[in-house]
Amino acid sequence: SYDGTGYSGWQRQRNSSKIRPHLPPPPLRGRIKEGGTIQGTIEEALEKLLQEKINLIGSGRTDAGVHAIAQTANFKTNTILPLQAIKKGLNAILPGDIRINSIRKVPENFNSRYSACGKTYQYLISFYFYPFLRNYTCYSPCQLNLSAMKKASEFLVGRHNFSSFQAAGSRIRNPIRSIKRLSIKKTKTLFGNLALIEIEADGFLYKMVRNIVGTLLEVGKSKMAPDEIEKILDKKNRKFAGPTAPAKGLYLKRVKY
């Protein structure tokens, strides 16, 4: 799990990938600094601990500012260290905003990305501006019509062409995805009520969740009728959907295998 606030997303930067293979593993001492990318930071910690070159494969590439409750990643190693020693060692080296929750051996052909059969994301919306929540929720200055948002969300459940909800210029050839569940509810917290949107699907297009949330927010603000969602799906064009919701309210909750 990780707090994505101080990172440039999951994926290691291209310019750093050209340099890294020529560098020896960093010495094993002290915690590594926060910042950069999640993948790069964990790889650096693994190389410190295991003293070998590591290539980490994640289940997905979360954007800058997106958080993860349960990201999954795999790597190959020649180490003889016990699994729990690796977990403990990593958590001692990693910065405080990244935590290894569990570690296990997997078959040789396992791939965190391509072996996954489903993912669940959560999105949090706050209605009061608290400094403590500024990096972890999307702030809405007005109350939302959650009933209208729920009605709109019904058009999204099922197997559809989600071209209208993928990022403009995306290179994914097959835009067909199946949303198995989409729930919208209020949840009580120390900071008052938050709106929680949870989406489970067999897979997601680039920025699909944030574009869906941004469009549902337009419905909640009465800027769009619930049945407009069906028309947006039919258009198969990004320009007809709502704005992209901020990254900071998004959490990767679960990866299913």
Automatic annotation (TrEMBL):
GO biological process: tRNA pseudouridine synthesis
The reaction(s) this protein catalyses: uridine(38/39/40) in tRNA = pseudouridine(38/39/40) in tRNA
CDD domains: PseudoU_synth_EcTruA
Disordered as annotated region, ranges: 1-30
InterPro entries, A to Z: PsdUridine_synth_cat_dom_sf (IPR020103), PsdUridine_synth_TruA (IPR001406), PsdUridine_synth_TruA_a/b_dom (IPR020097), PsdUridine_synth_TruA_C (IPR020095), TruA/RsuA/RluB/E/F_N (IPR020094)
Enzyme active site: D63
Protein family: Belongs to the tRNA pseudouridine synthase TruA family.
GO MF, one annotated term: tRNA pseudouridine(38-40) synthase activity
Top EC group: isomerase
Classification lineage: Bacteria, Candidatus Ratteibacteria
Gene3D superfamilies: Pseudouridine synthase I, catalytic domain, C-terminal subdomain, Pseudouridine synthase I, catalytic domain, N-terminal subdomain
Name by which UniProt lists this protein: tRNA pseudouridine synthase
Taxonomic superkingdom: Bacteria
Signal peptide: none
Species of the source: bacterium (Candidatus Ratteibacteria) CG01_land_8_20_14_3_00_40_19
Keyword tRNA-binding recorded: no
Keyword field contains Ribosomal protein: no
Entry binding sites for substrate: Y121
Ranges of residues in domain Pseudouridine synthase I TruA alpha/beta: 36-114, 154-257
Keywords: Isomerase, tRNA processing
PANTHER family: PSEUDOURIDYLATE SYNTHASE (PTHR11142), TRNA PSEUDOURIDINE SYNTHASE-LIKE 1 (PTHR11142:SF0)
Pfam families linked: PseudoU_synth_1 (PF01416)
EC number: 5.4.99.12
